Amino acid sequence: MANMTQALRMALHYGEEHLELRDIFGEDVGPPLGGVFTATQGLKTAWNSPLDERGIVGTAIGIAMTGQRCVAEIQFVDYIFNTIDLLKTAGNTLWAGNGQFPLPLVLMTPNGAGIHGAIYHSHSFDTWGVRLPGWKVVSPSNAKDAYGLMLSAILDPNPVLYLKPKALLRVKTPELIPGEPEDQKQLKEMIDAPVGEERKNWKPQWPKLEKYTVPIGKGSIVQEGEELTVVSFGRSLHLCKQALSSLSLSVELIDLRSLYPYDWTLIKSSVQKTKRLLIVNEDTEVANFGEHLALRAVQEGFYHLLAPPRVLSGKQVPGVGLHNNLESATVPQVKDIQSEIKNLIETKW
Fold first, then answer.
1. How does DSSP assign 50-66, residue by residue?
2. What's the CA gap between 145 and 67, in Å, rounded?
């Protein structure tokens, strides 16, 4: 029963051993810390870069241009914005080279609110990410999907933006990763470094992990329903699950998992059944990624819909405040999701 951080660590280890992953790097990614959330702890190819996001992305592009696979980390997504032009270049490369120059890099970064990180550690990059042509964008909601999506991302010839939800990195998943021991305490002793002086001589004892991939572009139905379709991902998906647990309504909940390419076939078939659509995410509300899904639902399924699709997202403010009340008022909470669900089910054109 690994948490998401342990799942990512095991996926990266599997990549080192079986998928020709040769470089895992970023700020504090190597020893002794192993990442600010310890997701790269104990990995043999992990190394520390300078505190330079542009240098990290540029190095990742250079490594990938030689055909080698790498995973680079931006320590918090809040600090990725000064690399936009480099991300654009990375997205162009395979297309501009007429398919002759694959760019097998993964850029992973903690994304979103939920840890009270205030204005510099609470941003979301969902919508910015899907605006970058040539990039694939994924965001898991549980440890097993985190493992499977990371292996798929490492194997992909395109650059993949891996948005790991900050607030879910310590959340455990009941489903075991193939090869993971059933005893959580045993797993911790095997792959979690001790605190203090003992860490200097510590080496992980990796379980015999197996290959398990989640196809990029495929969502999943978390809960089936008849009255409304709710589409979400990452931390927001967990809030949706909490919201639905106390509502006596028949709601279908979809975990998008991949923001681009997204599983439109799954969304469309669900909306044709329920005839109502709500998209929930934390990014700011103006030009939100969810608006694209809502627009497409209207364009392709207007005559199936009983009510206009809605998007519940973050407020259009410059940042997220430190105080709990400010964060709660800025990004969707359980009560907000419940209110939107009730209103949408009661709404007609």
1. PS-HHHHHHHHHHHHHT
2. 26
The DSSP bridge partners found for residue 25 are 47, 72
Helices (H), 33-180: 53-65, 84-96, 126-130, 143-155
Cα–Cα distance for residue pair 285/197, rounded to 1 Å = 47
Please write the tens of the pLDDT for every residue from 19-42: 999 999 999 999 999 999 999 999
> At residue 86, does pLDDT exceed 90?
yes
Q: 3-class DSSP state for residue 348?
A: coil
Sheet holding 310-314, edge to edge: 220-223, 251-255, 228-232, 277-284, 310-314
DSSP state of 119: G
* 4-201 and 220-346, same CATH topology: yes
Residue 195 · residue 126 · CB < 8 Å: no
CATH fold of 220-346 = Rossmann fold (3.40.50)
Angle at CA of residue 257, ends 74 and 17, nearest 5°: 60
CATH code, residues 4-201: 3.40.50.970
Provide the CB-side half-sphere exposure for 302 (13 A, CA). 3
Strand partners, 272: none
Q: Where are the alpha helices (DSSP H) in 158-217?
A: 184-191
User: Are 158 and 16 a contacting pair, CB within 8 Å?
Assistant: no
Q: How far is CA 100 from CA 91, 94, 134, 137, in A?
A: 14, 7, 14, 22
- 67 CA to centre of own chain: 25
Q: Where are the domains of the chain?
A: 4-201, 220-346
Q: In whole angstroms, give the CA distance from residue 344 to residue 59.
A: 47
Mean pLDDT of 227-237: 98
pTM greater than 0.90: yes
Q: How far apart are CA 143 and CA 153, in angstroms?
A: 15
Residue with tokens 């948005």: 163
Considering the chain, what is the average pLDDT of its residues?
96
Cis peptide bond prior to 159, omega within 30° of 0: no
Q: What is the dihedral of CA 293, 294, 298, 302, to 10 degrees?
A: 110
Q: Please, which residues have CB within 8 angstroms of residue 89's CB and are 6 or more apart in sequence?
A: 61
Predicted local distance difference test score (pLDDT) of residue 99: 87
